[in-house]
Amino acid sequence: MTELLSNHIGGQWQAGQGAGTALHDPVLGTELVRVDATGLDLPAAFAFARQQGGSALRALTYRQRAALLSAAAKVLQANRDAYYDISTANSGTVKNDTAVDVDGGIYTLGTYAKMGEGLGDVHFLHDGEPARLAKDILFQSQHVLTPTRGVALFINAFNFPSWGLWEKAAPALLSGVPVIVKPATTTAWLTQRMVKDVVDAGIFPAGSISVICGSSAGLMDQLEPFDVVSFTGSAETAAIIRSHPSVTRKSVRVNIEADSVNSALLLPSEAKGSEAFDLLIKEVAREMTVKSGQKCTAIRRVFVPESLYDPVAQGLSARLTKTTVGNPRHESVRMGAVVNRAQFNAVREGLAYLKSQANVLHDGDMHALVDADAALACCLGPTLLGTGDAVGSDAADRVHDTEVFGPVATLVPYRDNDLEHALRLIRRGQGSLVASVFGSDHAALAKAALQLTDSHGRVHVISPDVAALHTGHGNVMPQSLHGGPGRAGGGEELGGLRALQFYHRRAAIQASTAVLTQFK
Fold this sequence. Notes:
By secondary structure, this protein is α/β, with parallel strands linked by helices. It folds into two domains: 42-258 and 493-516, Aldehyde Dehydrogenase, Chain A, domain 1 (3-Layer(aba) Sandwich), CATH 3.40.605.10; 262-476, Aldehyde Dehydrogenase, Chain A, domain 2, CATH 3.40.309.10. Helix content is 35%, strand content 22%.
Protein backbone atom coordinates (compact mmCIF):
# COMPACT_ATOMS: atom_id res chain seq x y z
CA MET A 1 0.00 0.00 0.00
CA THR A 2 1.15 3.55 -0.69
CA GLU A 3 2.25 5.91 2.06
CA LEU A 4 -0.41 7.20 4.46
CA LEU A 5 0.27 10.87 5.13
CA SER A 6 0.16 12.01 8.74
CA ASN A 7 -1.80 14.92 10.17
CA HIS A 8 -0.11 17.53 12.37
CA ILE A 9 -2.25 18.41 15.38
CA GLY A 10 -1.56 19.03 19.05
CA GLY A 11 2.06 19.75 18.25
CA GLN A 12 2.75 16.27 16.87
CA TRP A 13 2.29 14.12 13.78
CA GLN A 14 -0.58 11.67 13.98
CA ALA A 15 -1.83 9.14 11.45
CA GLY A 16 -5.53 8.54 10.92
CA GLN A 17 -6.90 5.20 12.03
CA GLY A 18 -8.54 4.30 8.73
CA ALA A 19 -7.24 2.89 5.45
CA GLY A 20 -7.34 6.36 3.93
CA THR A 21 -8.39 7.93 0.66
CA ALA A 22 -6.08 7.43 -2.30
CA LEU A 23 -4.76 10.43 -4.25
CA HIS A 24 -4.07 9.77 -7.93
CA ASP A 25 -2.07 11.11 -10.84
CA PRO A 26 -4.78 12.61 -13.11
CA VAL A 27 -2.77 11.81 -16.26
CA LEU A 28 -1.34 8.37 -15.53
CA GLY A 29 -4.01 7.18 -13.11
CA THR A 30 -1.46 5.79 -10.64
CA GLU A 31 -2.04 5.91 -6.90
CA LEU A 32 0.35 8.34 -5.19
CA VAL A 33 -0.34 8.55 -1.46
CA ARG A 34 -3.25 8.17 0.95
CA VAL A 35 -4.76 10.61 3.44
CA ASP A 36 -6.95 9.96 6.45
CA ALA A 37 -8.20 11.88 9.50
CA THR A 38 -10.25 9.13 11.13
CA GLY A 39 -10.05 8.95 14.92
CA LEU A 40 -8.24 12.24 15.53
CA ASP A 41 -8.98 14.01 18.82
CA LEU A 42 -10.28 17.22 17.30
CA PRO A 43 -11.35 18.94 20.55
CA ALA A 44 -7.84 18.47 21.95
CA ALA A 45 -6.27 19.65 18.69
CA PHE A 46 -8.25 22.90 18.63
CA ALA A 47 -7.67 23.50 22.34
CA PHE A 48 -3.91 23.01 21.94
CA ALA A 49 -3.79 25.44 19.03
CA ARG A 50 -5.75 28.09 20.96
CA GLN A 51 -3.94 27.74 24.25
CA GLN A 52 -0.39 26.85 23.25
CA GLY A 53 -0.05 28.20 19.73
CA GLY A 54 -2.13 31.32 20.29
CA SER A 55 -0.45 32.32 23.54
CA ALA A 56 3.03 31.86 22.10
CA LEU A 57 2.26 33.82 18.92
CA ARG A 58 0.61 36.72 20.76
CA ALA A 59 3.65 37.01 23.03
CA LEU A 60 5.67 37.98 19.95
CA THR A 61 5.56 41.38 18.27
CA TYR A 62 4.49 41.89 14.67
CA ARG A 63 8.12 42.30 13.64
CA GLN A 64 9.09 39.06 15.38
CA ARG A 65 6.25 37.18 13.72
CA ALA A 66 7.25 38.69 10.37
CA ALA A 67 10.72 37.23 10.88
CA LEU A 68 9.13 33.79 11.31
CA LEU A 69 7.28 34.21 8.02
CA SER A 70 10.53 35.15 6.32
CA ALA A 71 12.24 32.06 7.73
CA ALA A 72 9.37 29.86 6.57
CA ALA A 73 9.59 31.32 3.05
CA LYS A 74 13.29 30.41 2.92
CA VAL A 75 12.54 26.82 3.95
CA LEU A 76 9.88 26.53 1.26
CA GLN A 77 12.17 28.02 -1.37
CA ALA A 78 14.84 25.46 -0.49
CA ASN A 79 12.37 22.62 -1.09
CA ARG A 80 10.78 24.12 -4.20
CA ASP A 81 11.83 21.32 -6.57
CA ALA A 82 10.04 18.71 -4.46
CA TYR A 83 6.85 20.78 -4.56
CA TYR A 84 7.04 20.98 -8.34
CA ASP A 85 7.29 17.19 -8.54
CA ILE A 86 4.30 16.72 -6.26
CA SER A 87 2.21 19.24 -8.20
CA THR A 88 3.01 17.60 -11.53
CA ALA A 89 2.07 14.18 -10.19
CA ASN A 90 -1.00 15.09 -8.10
CA SER A 91 -2.46 18.09 -9.95
CA GLY A 92 -1.34 17.29 -13.50
CA THR A 93 0.07 20.76 -14.06
CA VAL A 94 2.78 21.88 -16.47
CA LYS A 95 5.74 23.75 -14.98
CA ASN A 96 4.41 27.25 -15.67
CA ASP A 97 1.09 26.38 -14.02
CA THR A 98 2.84 24.89 -11.01
CA ALA A 99 4.72 28.17 -10.62
CA VAL A 100 1.42 30.04 -10.23
CA ASP A 101 0.62 27.90 -7.20
CA VAL A 102 4.00 27.10 -5.62
CA ASP A 103 5.95 30.27 -6.37
CA GLY A 104 2.82 32.35 -5.86
CA GLY A 105 2.42 30.93 -2.38
CA ILE A 106 6.05 31.53 -1.44
CA TYR A 107 5.93 35.06 -2.86
CA THR A 108 2.80 35.88 -0.86
CA LEU A 109 4.40 34.59 2.33
CA GLY A 110 7.52 36.67 1.70
CA THR A 111 5.45 39.76 0.90
CA TYR A 112 3.64 39.57 4.24
CA ALA A 113 6.97 39.08 5.98
CA LYS A 114 8.12 42.40 4.53
CA MET A 115 4.84 44.12 5.40
CA GLY A 116 5.03 42.84 8.97
CA GLU A 117 8.54 44.15 9.41
CA GLY A 118 7.17 47.65 8.97
CA LEU A 119 4.60 47.22 11.75
CA GLY A 120 7.35 47.26 14.36
CA ASP A 121 7.76 45.77 17.82
CA VAL A 122 4.20 46.24 19.05
CA HIS A 123 1.42 43.88 20.14
CA PHE A 124 -1.60 45.79 18.84
CA LEU A 125 -2.49 48.21 16.06
CA HIS A 126 -4.07 51.66 16.15
CA ASP A 127 -7.20 51.99 14.03
CA GLY A 128 -7.40 55.64 13.11
CA GLU A 129 -6.73 58.72 15.19
CA PRO A 130 -8.24 59.54 18.63
CA ALA A 131 -11.70 61.15 18.50
CA ARG A 132 -12.65 63.87 21.01
CA LEU A 133 -15.69 62.91 23.12
CA ALA A 134 -16.10 66.14 25.07
CA LYS A 135 -15.51 69.86 24.67
CA ASP A 136 -12.13 69.43 26.29
CA ILE A 137 -9.60 67.26 24.45
CA LEU A 138 -8.84 65.58 27.78
CA PHE A 139 -11.36 62.73 27.15
CA GLN A 140 -11.12 60.85 23.87
CA SER A 141 -11.86 57.56 22.09
CA GLN A 142 -9.13 55.49 20.45
CA HIS A 143 -9.96 52.44 18.35
CA VAL A 144 -7.46 49.58 18.49
CA LEU A 145 -7.03 46.22 16.81
CA THR A 146 -5.88 43.23 18.87
CA PRO A 147 -5.40 39.60 17.70
CA THR A 148 -8.42 37.39 18.27
CA ARG A 149 -7.89 34.79 21.00
CA GLY A 150 -8.95 31.88 18.83
CA VAL A 151 -7.86 29.75 15.91
CA ALA A 152 -8.22 30.29 12.19
CA LEU A 153 -9.73 27.28 10.42
CA PHE A 154 -9.02 27.15 6.69
CA ILE A 155 -11.10 24.88 4.47
CA ASN A 156 -9.41 25.12 1.09
CA ALA A 157 -10.13 24.22 -2.53
CA PHE A 158 -8.29 21.65 -4.65
CA ASN A 159 -6.89 23.98 -7.30
CA PHE A 160 -4.29 25.86 -5.20
CA PRO A 161 -2.86 23.57 -2.51
CA SER A 162 0.14 25.90 -1.99
CA TRP A 163 -1.11 29.43 -2.64
CA GLY A 164 -4.47 28.67 -1.04
CA LEU A 165 -2.64 27.79 2.18
CA TRP A 166 -0.16 30.64 2.37
CA GLU A 167 -2.41 33.48 1.19
CA LYS A 168 -4.55 32.74 4.25
CA ALA A 169 -1.87 31.60 6.69
CA ALA A 170 0.53 34.50 6.12
CA PRO A 171 -1.78 37.28 7.42
CA ALA A 172 -3.18 35.02 10.14
CA LEU A 173 0.23 34.09 11.58
CA LEU A 174 1.45 37.67 11.21
CA SER A 175 -1.61 38.70 13.22
CA GLY A 176 -0.72 36.25 15.99
CA VAL A 177 -3.49 33.73 15.28
CA PRO A 178 -2.74 29.97 15.01
CA VAL A 179 -4.02 28.21 11.91
CA ILE A 180 -5.58 24.81 11.25
CA VAL A 181 -5.72 24.02 7.54
CA LYS A 182 -7.99 21.41 5.97
CA PRO A 183 -6.84 21.11 2.34
CA ALA A 184 -9.10 19.60 -0.29
CA THR A 185 -8.55 15.86 -0.14
CA THR A 186 -7.78 15.44 -3.85
CA THR A 187 -4.59 17.55 -3.74
CA ALA A 188 -3.77 17.48 -0.02
CA TRP A 189 -0.29 16.05 -0.58
CA LEU A 190 1.38 19.35 -1.48
CA THR A 191 -0.21 21.24 1.43
CA GLN A 192 0.80 18.52 3.87
CA ARG A 193 4.38 18.44 2.57
CA MET A 194 4.80 22.21 2.85
CA VAL A 195 3.45 22.26 6.40
CA LYS A 196 5.72 19.33 7.27
CA ASP A 197 8.82 21.10 5.98
CA VAL A 198 8.00 24.25 7.97
CA VAL A 199 7.13 22.29 11.12
CA ASP A 200 10.26 20.14 10.89
CA ALA A 201 12.33 23.32 10.61
CA GLY A 202 11.04 24.35 14.06
CA ILE A 203 10.23 27.90 12.98
CA PHE A 204 6.88 28.53 14.64
CA PRO A 205 5.88 27.83 18.26
CA ALA A 206 4.10 24.50 18.81
CA GLY A 207 0.44 24.71 17.90
CA SER A 208 0.90 27.62 15.50
CA ILE A 209 0.16 25.63 12.36
CA SER A 210 -1.75 22.36 12.01
CA VAL A 211 -2.85 20.35 9.00
CA ILE A 212 -5.69 17.83 8.83
CA CYS A 213 -5.89 15.70 5.69
CA GLY A 214 -8.99 13.72 4.80
CA SER A 215 -12.57 14.27 5.85
CA SER A 216 -13.66 17.64 7.25
CA ALA A 217 -16.31 15.99 9.42
CA GLY A 218 -16.43 17.54 12.89
CA LEU A 219 -14.14 20.48 12.20
CA MET A 220 -16.83 23.15 12.30
CA ASP A 221 -18.19 21.63 15.52
CA GLN A 222 -14.96 22.59 17.31
CA LEU A 223 -15.26 26.32 16.68
CA GLU A 224 -15.71 28.73 19.57
CA PRO A 225 -16.83 32.41 19.61
CA PHE A 226 -13.38 33.95 19.01
CA ASP A 227 -12.37 31.54 16.24
CA VAL A 228 -12.59 32.43 12.55
CA VAL A 229 -13.15 30.26 9.49
CA SER A 230 -12.11 30.98 5.92
CA PHE A 231 -13.56 28.84 3.14
CA THR A 232 -12.82 28.58 -0.58
CA GLY A 233 -15.09 26.36 -2.67
CA SER A 234 -18.61 25.88 -3.95
CA ALA A 235 -21.60 28.02 -3.08
CA GLU A 236 -23.42 24.90 -1.86
CA THR A 237 -20.75 24.12 0.75
CA ALA A 238 -20.53 27.81 1.66
CA ALA A 239 -24.24 27.78 2.50
CA ILE A 240 -23.72 24.80 4.82
CA ILE A 241 -20.88 26.61 6.60
CA ARG A 242 -22.92 29.79 7.02
CA SER A 243 -25.80 27.83 8.55
CA HIS A 244 -23.65 25.87 11.00
CA PRO A 245 -24.54 26.42 14.69
CA SER A 246 -21.01 27.66 15.40
CA VAL A 247 -21.71 30.53 13.02
CA THR A 248 -25.36 31.19 13.79
CA ARG A 249 -25.16 30.79 17.58
CA LYS A 250 -21.56 31.59 18.49
CA SER A 251 -21.01 34.37 15.92
CA VAL A 252 -17.86 32.74 14.55
CA ARG A 253 -16.50 35.10 11.92
CA VAL A 254 -16.66 33.66 8.38
CA ASN A 255 -14.95 34.58 5.12
CA ILE A 256 -16.26 32.94 1.96
CA GLU A 257 -14.91 32.78 -1.58
CA ALA A 258 -17.35 30.89 -3.80
CA ASP A 259 -18.42 30.63 -7.45
CA SER A 260 -17.52 33.40 -9.87
CA VAL A 261 -18.23 33.91 -13.58
CA ASN A 262 -15.52 36.49 -14.23
CA SER A 263 -15.51 38.77 -17.25
CA ALA A 264 -13.29 40.41 -19.84
CA LEU A 265 -14.62 43.51 -21.59
CA LEU A 266 -13.36 45.08 -24.82
CA LEU A 267 -14.46 48.71 -24.99
CA PRO A 268 -16.69 49.79 -27.91
CA SER A 269 -14.09 52.26 -29.23
CA GLU A 270 -11.66 49.49 -30.22
CA ALA A 271 -11.21 48.10 -33.73
CA LYS A 272 -10.01 44.83 -35.17
CA GLY A 273 -6.23 44.60 -34.94
CA SER A 274 -5.82 47.41 -32.42
CA GLU A 275 -3.32 46.88 -29.62
CA ALA A 276 -6.12 46.48 -27.08
CA PHE A 277 -7.87 43.98 -29.37
CA ASP A 278 -4.70 41.87 -29.56
CA LEU A 279 -4.15 42.14 -25.79
CA LEU A 280 -7.66 40.78 -25.20
CA ILE A 281 -7.01 37.78 -27.46
CA LYS A 282 -3.75 37.00 -25.69
CA GLU A 283 -5.12 37.34 -22.16
CA VAL A 284 -8.33 35.38 -22.72
CA ALA A 285 -6.45 32.49 -24.30
CA ARG A 286 -3.98 32.50 -21.42
CA GLU A 287 -6.72 32.54 -18.81
CA MET A 288 -8.55 29.67 -20.48
CA THR A 289 -5.50 27.42 -20.45
CA VAL A 290 -3.49 28.27 -17.29
CA LYS A 291 -4.05 25.43 -14.81
CA SER A 292 -6.49 23.99 -17.36
CA GLY A 293 -8.92 26.76 -16.50
CA GLN A 294 -9.13 25.62 -12.87
CA LYS A 295 -8.81 29.07 -11.32
CA CYS A 296 -11.48 30.88 -9.37
CA THR A 297 -10.35 34.05 -11.17
CA ALA A 298 -10.29 32.63 -14.72
CA ILE A 299 -12.13 34.51 -17.46
CA ARG A 300 -15.47 32.79 -18.12
CA ARG A 301 -17.31 35.46 -20.19
CA VAL A 302 -15.77 37.65 -22.90
CA PHE A 303 -17.79 40.75 -23.84
CA VAL A 304 -17.03 42.39 -27.21
CA PRO A 305 -18.86 44.77 -29.59
CA GLU A 306 -21.16 42.83 -31.89
CA SER A 307 -19.21 43.92 -34.99
CA LEU A 308 -16.04 42.38 -33.53
CA TYR A 309 -17.62 39.05 -32.53
CA ASP A 310 -16.36 37.12 -35.55
CA PRO A 311 -12.84 38.64 -35.57
CA VAL A 312 -12.41 37.94 -31.86
CA ALA A 313 -13.73 34.38 -32.28
CA GLN A 314 -11.29 33.78 -35.13
CA GLY A 315 -8.37 35.31 -33.24
CA LEU A 316 -9.05 33.27 -30.11
CA SER A 317 -9.53 30.06 -32.05
CA ALA A 318 -6.25 30.58 -33.92
CA ARG A 319 -4.41 31.09 -30.65
CA LEU A 320 -6.09 28.19 -28.84
CA THR A 321 -5.31 25.84 -31.71
CA LYS A 322 -1.61 26.19 -30.83
CA THR A 323 -2.20 24.88 -27.29
CA THR A 324 -0.74 21.40 -26.88
CA VAL A 325 -2.57 19.27 -24.31
CA GLY A 326 -1.47 16.13 -22.52
CA ASN A 327 1.16 14.75 -20.14
CA PRO A 328 2.76 17.73 -18.32
CA ARG A 329 6.08 15.87 -18.21
CA HIS A 330 6.40 16.19 -21.98
CA GLU A 331 8.33 19.31 -23.01
CA SER A 332 5.96 20.23 -25.83
CA VAL A 333 2.83 20.20 -23.62
CA ARG A 334 1.45 23.59 -22.59
CA MET A 335 -1.71 22.46 -20.78
CA GLY A 336 -2.03 19.43 -18.52
CA ALA A 337 -5.04 17.79 -16.91
CA VAL A 338 -7.96 18.74 -14.74
CA VAL A 339 -7.53 17.39 -11.24
CA ASN A 340 -9.45 14.10 -11.42
CA ARG A 341 -12.12 12.10 -13.25
CA ALA A 342 -14.94 13.71 -11.26
CA GLN A 343 -13.80 17.16 -12.37
CA PHE A 344 -13.36 15.92 -15.93
CA ASN A 345 -16.97 14.73 -15.95
CA ALA A 346 -18.18 17.95 -14.32
CA VAL A 347 -16.59 20.01 -17.10
CA ARG A 348 -18.17 17.78 -19.73
CA GLU A 349 -21.58 18.15 -18.09
CA GLY A 350 -21.17 21.92 -17.73
CA LEU A 351 -20.26 22.23 -21.40
CA ALA A 352 -23.35 20.29 -22.44
CA TYR A 353 -25.47 22.59 -20.27
CA LEU A 354 -24.04 25.75 -21.84
CA LYS A 355 -24.21 24.41 -25.38
CA SER A 356 -28.00 24.48 -25.23
CA GLN A 357 -27.74 28.29 -25.44
CA ALA A 358 -24.37 28.76 -27.14
CA ASN A 359 -22.47 27.68 -30.23
CA VAL A 360 -19.07 26.01 -30.29
CA LEU A 361 -16.49 28.42 -31.74
CA HIS A 362 -13.43 26.34 -30.89
CA ASP A 363 -13.85 22.67 -30.08
CA GLY A 364 -11.55 21.33 -27.38
CA ASP A 365 -12.02 17.79 -28.70
CA MET A 366 -9.94 18.66 -31.77
CA HIS A 367 -6.81 18.70 -29.59
CA ALA A 368 -5.01 15.36 -29.76
CA LEU A 369 -3.38 14.43 -26.47
CA VAL A 370 0.40 14.33 -26.30
CA ASP A 371 1.94 11.34 -24.49
CA ALA A 372 -1.34 10.54 -22.73
CA ASP A 373 -4.02 7.87 -23.02
CA ALA A 374 -7.31 9.61 -23.82
CA ALA A 375 -9.23 6.81 -22.11
CA LEU A 376 -7.33 7.33 -18.87
CA ALA A 377 -5.98 10.88 -18.68
CA CYS A 378 -8.22 13.66 -17.33
CA CYS A 379 -7.20 16.01 -20.13
CA LEU A 380 -9.51 18.38 -21.98
CA GLY A 381 -8.73 20.77 -24.80
CA PRO A 382 -9.77 24.43 -24.43
CA THR A 383 -13.32 25.11 -25.65
CA LEU A 384 -14.66 28.52 -26.71
CA LEU A 385 -18.42 29.00 -26.93
CA GLY A 386 -20.39 31.97 -28.24
CA THR A 387 -23.95 33.31 -27.93
CA GLY A 388 -24.11 34.42 -31.58
CA ASP A 389 -25.35 38.01 -31.51
CA ALA A 390 -26.51 40.72 -29.13
CA VAL A 391 -30.06 39.35 -29.15
CA GLY A 392 -28.70 35.94 -28.21
CA SER A 393 -26.68 37.52 -25.41
CA ASP A 394 -29.84 38.97 -23.89
CA ALA A 395 -31.72 35.67 -24.22
CA ALA A 396 -28.97 33.43 -22.81
CA ASP A 397 -28.98 33.07 -19.04
CA ARG A 398 -26.90 29.96 -18.43
CA VAL A 399 -23.63 31.64 -19.40
CA HIS A 400 -24.19 34.22 -16.65
CA ASP A 401 -25.30 31.71 -14.02
CA THR A 402 -22.96 28.77 -14.58
CA GLU A 403 -19.24 28.49 -13.90
CA VAL A 404 -17.69 25.57 -15.75
CA PHE A 405 -14.48 25.02 -13.78
CA GLY A 406 -12.17 24.07 -16.61
CA PRO A 407 -10.71 25.38 -19.92
CA VAL A 408 -14.00 26.93 -21.06
CA ALA A 409 -15.09 30.49 -21.88
CA THR A 410 -18.02 32.05 -23.74
CA LEU A 411 -17.86 34.96 -26.18
CA VAL A 412 -20.78 37.34 -25.56
CA PRO A 413 -21.40 40.25 -27.99
CA TYR A 414 -23.06 43.48 -26.92
CA ARG A 415 -24.64 46.17 -29.09
CA ASP A 416 -22.07 48.33 -30.88
CA ASN A 417 -21.30 51.63 -29.16
CA ASP A 418 -23.49 50.63 -26.21
CA LEU A 419 -21.28 50.25 -23.15
CA GLU A 420 -24.31 50.28 -20.85
CA HIS A 421 -25.57 47.13 -22.56
CA ALA A 422 -22.24 45.44 -21.89
CA LEU A 423 -22.25 46.50 -18.24
CA ARG A 424 -25.80 45.19 -17.75
CA LEU A 425 -24.76 41.83 -19.19
CA ILE A 426 -21.68 41.65 -16.99
CA ARG A 427 -23.74 42.39 -13.86
CA ARG A 428 -25.93 39.40 -14.64
CA GLY A 429 -23.08 37.41 -13.14
CA GLN A 430 -24.43 38.60 -9.75
CA GLY A 431 -21.05 39.49 -8.36
CA SER A 432 -17.60 38.24 -9.36
CA LEU A 433 -14.03 38.17 -8.15
CA VAL A 434 -12.53 40.06 -11.08
CA ALA A 435 -13.30 41.77 -14.37
CA SER A 436 -10.79 42.94 -16.94
CA VAL A 437 -11.31 45.98 -19.16
CA PHE A 438 -9.35 46.33 -22.42
CA GLY A 439 -9.00 49.59 -24.32
CA SER A 440 -6.70 52.46 -25.28
CA ASP A 441 -8.74 55.50 -24.16
CA HIS A 442 -7.64 56.18 -20.58
CA ALA A 443 -10.71 58.24 -19.71
CA ALA A 444 -13.09 55.59 -21.06
CA LEU A 445 -11.17 52.86 -19.24
CA ALA A 446 -11.39 54.74 -15.95
CA LYS A 447 -15.12 55.31 -16.36
CA ALA A 448 -15.83 51.65 -17.16
CA ALA A 449 -13.61 50.42 -14.31
CA LEU A 450 -15.43 52.51 -11.71
CA GLN A 451 -18.78 51.30 -12.98
CA LEU A 452 -17.70 47.70 -12.43
CA THR A 453 -16.45 48.12 -8.86
CA ASP A 454 -19.91 47.69 -7.32
CA SER A 455 -20.09 44.08 -8.49
CA HIS A 456 -16.43 42.99 -8.47
CA GLY A 457 -13.70 42.63 -5.88
CA ARG A 458 -11.02 43.61 -8.37
CA VAL A 459 -11.03 45.41 -11.74
CA HIS A 460 -7.96 44.77 -13.91
CA VAL A 461 -7.47 47.46 -16.56
CA ILE A 462 -5.25 46.57 -19.53
CA SER A 463 -4.16 49.29 -21.96
CA PRO A 464 -1.25 49.27 -24.44
CA ASP A 465 0.97 51.32 -22.12
CA VAL A 466 0.96 48.51 -19.49
CA ALA A 467 1.07 45.60 -21.94
CA ALA A 468 4.45 44.43 -20.65
CA LEU A 469 3.81 45.38 -17.03
CA HIS A 470 0.36 44.21 -15.95
CA THR A 471 0.27 41.19 -13.65
CA GLY A 472 -2.52 39.30 -15.42
CA HIS A 473 -6.27 39.10 -15.09
CA GLY A 474 -6.23 35.93 -13.02
CA ASN A 475 -3.09 36.44 -10.95
CA VAL A 476 -4.00 37.36 -7.38
CA MET A 477 -1.36 39.71 -6.02
CA PRO A 478 -1.07 40.01 -2.21
CA GLN A 479 -1.10 43.82 -2.45
CA SER A 480 -4.62 43.82 -3.95
CA LEU A 481 -7.97 42.65 -2.66
CA HIS A 482 -9.10 39.11 -3.43
CA GLY A 483 -12.80 38.40 -3.03
CA GLY A 484 -16.07 39.62 -4.40
CA PRO A 485 -19.70 40.44 -3.60
CA GLY A 486 -22.83 38.41 -4.22
CA ARG A 487 -22.39 34.95 -5.68
CA ALA A 488 -18.59 35.30 -5.34
CA GLY A 489 -19.09 34.85 -1.60
CA GLY A 490 -19.03 38.37 -0.21
CA GLY A 491 -15.58 37.83 1.30
CA GLU A 492 -12.31 39.71 1.31
CA GLU A 493 -8.76 38.37 1.50
CA LEU A 494 -5.32 39.91 0.98
CA GLY A 495 -5.29 43.58 -0.03
CA GLY A 496 -2.01 44.19 1.77
CA LEU A 497 -2.34 44.79 5.49
CA ARG A 498 -6.13 44.94 5.15
CA ALA A 499 -6.05 41.14 5.40
CA LEU A 500 -4.99 41.39 9.04
CA GLN A 501 -8.32 42.92 10.06
CA PHE A 502 -10.11 39.58 9.68
CA TYR A 503 -7.86 38.12 12.39
CA HIS A 504 -8.17 41.06 14.79
CA ARG A 505 -10.91 42.40 17.03
CA ARG A 506 -11.67 46.10 16.93
CA ALA A 507 -12.48 47.89 20.18
CA ALA A 508 -12.82 51.50 21.30
CA ILE A 509 -10.96 52.63 24.41
CA GLN A 510 -12.52 55.75 25.94
CA ALA A 511 -10.13 57.39 28.35
CA SER A 512 -8.12 60.38 29.35
CA THR A 513 -5.74 61.59 26.68
CA ALA A 514 -2.98 60.94 29.20
CA VAL A 515 -4.03 57.28 29.33
CA LEU A 516 -4.30 56.96 25.57
CA THR A 517 -0.77 58.25 25.09
CA GLN A 518 0.45 55.16 26.99
CA PHE A 519 -0.66 52.92 24.13
CA LYS A 520 2.49 52.75 22.06
